[in-house]
């Protein structure tokens, strides 16, 4: 048995939770768009070619905002190719994956899909293979009501009302040698500053995200953030880090990715605030963690078609996730929430088929991977105030992140509903955890619901033929006495307890 305790008090609040942390990323990559979102001819496809079975699962996932269209493909993308009559749209070489982009889905279809699905769009605009005119036209096309060539093009394409996209990303991973038109920090810092400036001149209500280093292991990590911020601080609202957790045969080392992500967030916030201090500025740059996931089974060559073949659709990195992966994703989601005073948006990468919680078969069914469950439960219950916590937990030692506590906990209070939600990951692989949570002044009187993700086989998966192998259960041993919640959490389990 391992023990852990948490104390929260009504008066000690970190921040309100921004529900844009339950975002997702949908790239023109593999079968995320073609065969995932868009498959005309599929038995569930609607008049726009959108798979309804997928829309239902995306709604159940509880996704709030979706970043589109890339990703690495963004750096060679002409958004104008994806508007207007579909039979006139150009076919282009897509140089980030050596495939052919048919442009059958583009900005207008994406916005339509978002509206049908109840999701806020987050658009990324290309400043790699294009100059600022591309970004200018993109924003003008989307957000100006009419009376200019670009906005009237949108109206002529059947969209009388502006798309009103309020969250824009400028570029993608511009520091990577794998990127079309890779840039130095100064080159990118200047471009993102000028792009953000004109984007906001077109629509003052837009918020702009700039790319952080592609990951925490880039050799220029830290310098990149400083130089980009020194150039663009006055114009941008968000810095956008990415992380793909590496697999590790040692499960505790794998789980230490949660602590590494926490450190990554805190370091990036410190870099933003250091530049604010240099400038004597009260402005605070927020984080949009706009790509995060496990990249456990990627092989470098799996990300591309063979050079010279240029297929239209190429299934890529359709990883099958395990229970162990679901536990890590649950804990990482908590880390984003626990840093919610500065993490105001996040996009799980990616939404469908490509390292995704939702899988589809062409002309066949759609199903939920194991990682679907922590993401959807976190969104279902994730709202309100993030409580500050005093946590006490036994530790274990890892190579990746030194001492790590077995418990990862999160407490949210929803005052209007009189409801409090506890997310708790027990990282002890062998022992149950006796957890107590002192909910001081939160008015809890009864347990409303519990959910538990656990399985004796940490490598168990959901597949097309066995899609419900892993589903959440409930916690059997849980009680509320006075203001103290107590629960016995299974070894290696991710848990939700709701009280009111
Ligand atoms: O999500 C897959 C790829 O990972 C994205 O295109 C890129 O931004 C990142 O390197």
Automatic annotation (TrEMBL):
Its EC number is 3.2.1.55. InterPro entries: Alpha-L-AF_C, ASD1_cat, GH, Glyco_hydro_b. The keyword Hydrolase applies. GO terms for molecular function: alpha-L-arabinofuranosidase activity. The keyword Hydrolase applies. Residues 290-493 form the Alpha-L-arabinofuranosidase C-terminal domain. GO terms for biological process: L-arabinose metabolic process; polysaccharide catabolic process. Keywords: Carbohydrate metabolism, Glycosidase, Hydrolase. It catalyses: Hydrolysis of terminal non-reducing alpha-L-arabinofuranoside residues in alpha-L-arabinosides. Coiled coil: none annotated. It comes from the Bacteria. Pfam families: Alpha-L-AF_C, ASD1_dom. Homohexamer; trimer of dimers. Belongs to the glycosyl hydrolase 51 family. PANTHER family: ALPHA-L-ARABINOFURANOSIDASE C (PTHR43576:SF3), ALPHA-L-ARABINOFURANOSIDASE C-RELATED (PTHR43576). This is non-reducing end alpha-L-arabinofuranosidase. It comes from Devosia geojensis.
């Amino acid at each position: 048995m391992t023990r852990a305790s948490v104390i929260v008090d009504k008066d000690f609040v970190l921040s309100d939770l921004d529900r844009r942390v339950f975002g997702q990323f949908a790239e023109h990559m593999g079968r995320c768009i073609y065969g995932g979102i868009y498959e005309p001819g599929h038995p569930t496809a609607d008049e726009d070619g959108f798979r309804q079975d997928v829309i239902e699962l995306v709604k159940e996932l509880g996704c709030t905002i979706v970043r589109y269209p890339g990703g690495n493909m963004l750096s060679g993308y002409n958004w104008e190719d994806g508007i207007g009559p579909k039979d006139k749209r150009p076919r282009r070489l897509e140089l980030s994956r050596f495939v052919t982009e048919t442009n059958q889905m583009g900005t207008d279809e994406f916005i339509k899909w978002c509206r049908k699905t109840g999701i806020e769009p987050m658009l990324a605009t290309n400043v790699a293979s294009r100059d600022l005119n591309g970004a200018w036209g993109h924003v003008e096309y989307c957000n100006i009501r009419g009376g200019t060539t670009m906005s009237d093009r949108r109206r002529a394409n059947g969209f009388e009302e502006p798309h009103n996209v309020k969250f824009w990303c400028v570029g993608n991973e511009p520091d990577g040698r794998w990127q079309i038109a890779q840039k130095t920090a100064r080159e990118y810092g200047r471009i993102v500053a000028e792009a953000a400036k004109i984007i906001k001149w077109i629509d003052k209500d837009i918020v702009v995200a700039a790319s952080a280093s592609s990951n925490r292991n880039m050799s220029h990590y830290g310098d990149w953030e400083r130089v980009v911020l020194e150039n663009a601080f006055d114009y941008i609202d968000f810095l956008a880090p990415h992380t793909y957790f590496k697999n590790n045969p040692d499960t505790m080392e794998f789980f230490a990715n949660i602590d590494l992500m926490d450190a990554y967030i805190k370091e990036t916030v410190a870099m933003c605030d250091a530049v604010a201090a240099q400038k004597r500025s009260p402005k605070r740059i927020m984080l949009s963690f706009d790509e995060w996931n496990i990249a456990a089974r990627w092989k470098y060559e799996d990300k591309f078609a063979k050079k010279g073949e240029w297929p239209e659709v190429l299934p890529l990195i359709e990883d099958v996730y395990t229970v162990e992966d679901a536990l890590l994703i649950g804990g990482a989601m908590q880390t984003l929430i626990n840093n919610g005073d500065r993490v105001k948006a996040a996009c799980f990468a990616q939404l469908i088929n490509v390292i995704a919680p939702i899988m589809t078969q062409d002309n066949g069914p759609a199903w939920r991977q194991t990682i679907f469950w922590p993401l959807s439960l976190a969104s279902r219950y994730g709202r309100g105030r993030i409580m500050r916590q005093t946590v006490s937990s036994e530790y274990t030692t890892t190579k990746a992140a030194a001492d790590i506590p077995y418990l990862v906990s999160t407490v949210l209070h929803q005052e209007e509903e009189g409801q409090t939600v506890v997310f708790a990951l027990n990282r002890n692989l062998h022992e149950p955890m006796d957890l107590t949570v002192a909910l001081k002044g939160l008015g809890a009187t009864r347990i409303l619901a519990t959910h538990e993700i656990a399985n004796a086989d940490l490598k168990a998966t959901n597949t097309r033929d066995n899609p419900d192998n892993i589903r959440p259960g409930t916690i059997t041993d849980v009680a509320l006495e006075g203001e103290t919640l107590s629960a016995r959490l299974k070894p290696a389990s991710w848990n939700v307890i709701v009280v009111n």
